[in-house]
């Protein structure tokens, strides 16, 4: 017996394709959430959707290519049994516990080849020597063609790479510092892409450009220190899932107003909360409660199909699975953070006796 889902009208507010029994909270909460969407570069759409040989190779090895171009490295306890298609059939990305996204300083080290962020230093070099050295032996020629295409697509549109290009040609790399802005709070209802100067700054030891951002991470040419990018930083998604966010579009942060809420109202609510939480040492303490889009609502909106809008996330195959798992962990940790930061409202001390007994 076959069960057919009843067809449903698209959401009247955000035009999302609805399936039977899906509640309004699954797309835009009946018009309360609106996020602007930038068009995916047409050449990248071709890699995601066409049937030429490069596009097939790109999609079949999507996690490899994303890893090649991402700025961060991911750490998690991956379940190897479910990713082994020879023994268990369908590939399933299954992680245990937390997922960490780390970014590393770019100091030179003997025997170390440039990776992640450092590869962008050499993107003005026409031979692409550093990038192509990372190709895998078995599929070197196919890898090269796709990497070349991706590099051309990202050239000029990714704001991070614009900051770093040609740093590979300087003699005194150890004097250089890269400051990544962790405090981007763009109102994503209208515009989603920050300016090149807003995402990062590059400066040399002793220069006046240092300390441009309120909350940032500083990488340097002196060492290879590791820094964590936290799930509530707006740049978490675009530093890690570059193929979904090629222009450096921001992901979720806790200051995206709902429809009908002004930025001034959000800032006021944040200031009140920050004062109340005072000195918790956590930079997520200043969220503005129910005036802003929650992390769950944000990603529900992002995962929807909408007629006429190309959504690369839904074409992502194994990278889609990784992104979905990462997002799930992000929603869970945001809920735990809420409980941790709101003990005075939740009054958990009252229940302490229950646990003890
Ligand atoms: Zn909707």
UniProtKB/TrEMBL annotation:
InterPro entries: Helitron_helicase-like (IPR025476). It comes from the Eukaryota. Residues 298-354 form the Helitron helicase-like domain. This is Helitron helicase-like domain-containing protein. It comes from Setaria italica (Foxtail millet).
């Amino acid at each position: 017996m076959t069960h057919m889902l009843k067809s449903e009208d698209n959401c009247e507010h955000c035009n999302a394709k609805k399936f039977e029994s899906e509640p309004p909270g699954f797309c835009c909460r009946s018009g309360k959430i609106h996020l602007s969407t930038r068009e995916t570069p047409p050449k990248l759409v071709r890699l995601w959707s066409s049937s030429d040989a490069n596009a097939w190779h790109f999609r079949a090895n999507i996690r490899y290519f994303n890893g090649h171009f991402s700025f961060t490295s991911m750490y998690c306890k991956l379940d190897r049994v479910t990713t082994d298609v020879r023994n268990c059939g369908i590939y399933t990305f299954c992680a245990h516990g937390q997922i960490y996204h780390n970014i590393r300083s770019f100091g030179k080290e003997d025997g170390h080849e440039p990776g992640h962020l450092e590869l962008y230093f050499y993107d003005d070099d026409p031979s692409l020597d550093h990038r192509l050295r990372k190709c895998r032996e078995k599929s070197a020629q196919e890898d090269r063609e796709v990497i070349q295409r991706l590099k051309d697509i990202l050239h000029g549109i990714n704001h991070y790479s614009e900051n770093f290009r040609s740093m590979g040609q300087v003699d005194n790399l150890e004097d250089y510092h890269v400051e990544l802005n962790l405090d981007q709070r763009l109102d994503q209802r209208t515009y989603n892409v920050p300016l090149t100067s807003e995402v990062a700054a590059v400066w040399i030891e002793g220069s006046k450009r240092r300390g441009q951002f309120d909350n940032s991470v500083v990488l340097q040419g002196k060492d290879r220190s590791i820094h964590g990018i936290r799930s509530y930083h707006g740049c978490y998604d675009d530093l890690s899932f570059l193929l979904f966010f090629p222009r450096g579009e921001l992901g979720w942060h806790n200051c995206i107003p709902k429809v009908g809420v002004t930025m001034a109202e959000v800032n006021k609510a944040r200031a009140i909360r920050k004062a109340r939480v005072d000195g918790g040492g956590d930079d997520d303490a200043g969220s503005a409660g129910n005036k802003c889009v929650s992390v769950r609502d944000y990603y529900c909106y992002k995962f929807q199909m909408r007629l006429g809008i190309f959504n690369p996330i839904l074409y992502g195959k194994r990278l889609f699975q990784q992104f979905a798992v990462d997002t799930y962990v992000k929603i869970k940790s945001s809920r735990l953070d809420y409980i941790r930061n709101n003990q005075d409202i939740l009054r958990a001390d009252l229940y302490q006796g229950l646990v003890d007994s």
